[in-house]
Structures are given as structure tokens and as C-alpha cells.
Design brief:
20% helix, rod-shaped, alpha+beta, 5 strands, single chain
């Protein structure tokens, strides 16, 4: 009788551990993940200063919400190279996207 109780407890313990182990996912699958693609880019003159304007599409490819992001870009033309790093707080739900428009002026060192 006592052996049956021990076997029954071991069975339920094993069953509970199996359920717990099978319901856990790899925690890294919940890390925010995204992909950025350039939709348009062109050079223009704004207030007498050459400026590069870029429109990006930011897609949330992960399973959790993106609430902050940092983007670093460099864009080269025949005459100059533009650099920009930007951070922002914007909620992007899983599977959804956001659009980001940025203008960045020609570096001072390249201005005439």
C-alpha cells in the first residue's frame, strides 16, 4: 500500500515536471527583434545646407513589443558621406511596423 502511494506521488511529480518543461520556451525568443529597410533616400538643400533625407521602415520581427530603438546610418553620395545615429521611444507591436523619417545635414568639416 505504501509503495502504491509513493509510485502515485512520483507519477504526479513526473507529470508535473513534464508539463512545466514543455510549457517553457527559450527566453531569448521573447527578446525584441526588428529589421529596418530603406524606403527612400535623397539629397536636398535645406536652409542653404546640403542635407540627406532617409525614410526607413522598421519591422518588429520578434514576439515582444519594441519600445525603444537605436539606428545608425551612413549614406554616401559622389561628393560626401553622411552619418547619423538616432534613438527614440516608439511602441512597435509584434508583426507591425513603423516609419522613420530623418534628415541629417552635411558634416561641418565638409561644408564650404
Amino acid at each position: 500500500m505504501r509503495a502504491n502511494i509513493i509510485r502515485r506521488k512520483l507519477f504526479f511529480l513526473g507529470f508535473a515536471l513534464t508539463i512545466a518543461a514543455s510549457s517553457c520556451q527559450n527566453p531569448s525568443s521573447w527578446y525584441p527583434a526588428g529589421k529596418a529597410s530603406i524606403l527612400s533616400s535623397y539629397e536636398l538643400t535645406a536652409s542653404g545646407i546640403k542635407t540627406c533625407e532617409v525614410t526607413l521602415k522598421i519591422l518588429n520581427t520578434g514576439q515582444s513589443t519594441i519600445s525603444n530603438y537605436t539606428i545608425s546610418l551612413s549614406a554616401a553620395t559622389d561628393a560626401r558621406t553622411y552619418y547619423k545615429t538616432a534613438s527614440d521611444s516608439l511602441t512597435i507591436l509584434p508583426g507591425k511596423n513603423a516609419y522613420w523619417l530623418s534628415r541629417y545635414p552635411m558634416p561641418r568639416s565638409q561644408r564650404l
